[in-house]
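By way of example, what follows is a protein record of this kind.
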Amino acid sequence: MQGVLGRMAVICSLFATFSFATNIVDSRDNHNYKTLPSGKLNWFSGNLAYKNPEAQTNNGTVYYPNGSWKNACPEGTHLPTISEWSEFKKDRFTGPRKIPNIKNFAGKTRGYFDKNDTKKKIKNKDVAYFAVDGVENQVVMLDLKRGNISSVNLSPTALVPIRCVSERDLFAEKNVAKENMTLTDTRDGNQYKVEQKAGKLWMTANLRFSLQSAKQCFLEDTLFCKKHGRFYTYYEAKKACPQGWHLPDDGEWRDYQRESVNWDNMGVGGCKDWDEYCDATNTGHYWSSTSIKKNTGRSWEFRRLGKNINRTDESTQKGLYVRCVAELE
């Protein structure tokens, strides 16, 4: 049983490491490619499959000669440079799981072909090669035994597979329309204005996503909820943000309040203290994901009249507001 669980853990780990960002369709043959997010790029998770006249196919993998590398990728994507491969290596192929991760990325890709070889046999089957944009005949070699990536020069007549990359739209990945800086929560269709603050995206209004009932609303008034947001317990707050967004921790709240604060936009309704409410007119209380003391979570209280901020440890059962934040890197 432990062996089965262990194998399942490895599979789950690989799936988490190589979570798919988006799909890209090649208009030339309608082939659909899943991608892997890394830094500012999305990487094809599988080899380019477009069959140009010069390419050679073996066991489902398409190998391309040097002269066709540059323009092989679909419109809107490009052949990665050696520096982009280096950044990908730092992001994906370091640490204790670099060997299984690099094997998972390479898949069935092995070796290279030489178009002058009349026997048409794959050469150097122990490693994987991929085309690079830049120096002529230079490719990257994936050492599947050691989990390393290095650049090597092959013969001008060598054929290798291709992985393409595209620029990521980090706003679209967070369901934010950049033209009007509006987040759409796909769970319920609610929309929120967002802003770039301290290098991240922040909601400028309180979360309204319903986890329970009208009890999450000030005075159980659902109209108030729609306008000013809902109260959440600490554990509700930690799971309330949309996918790709999260409850800010203490460090993120510190960075947030170092820049100018829109005090009129920091909540109405105070907080919910069991069956009572706290300073509903002049304050907004917000959860941090940080917890220092048992059965408490950090609260950031924004006091509009005095324009000051108070950080306290509150019972996890209290009802506080939520502002969600997202990384832009």
Remarks:
- Residues 2-167 form one domain.
- The radius of gyration is 26 Å.
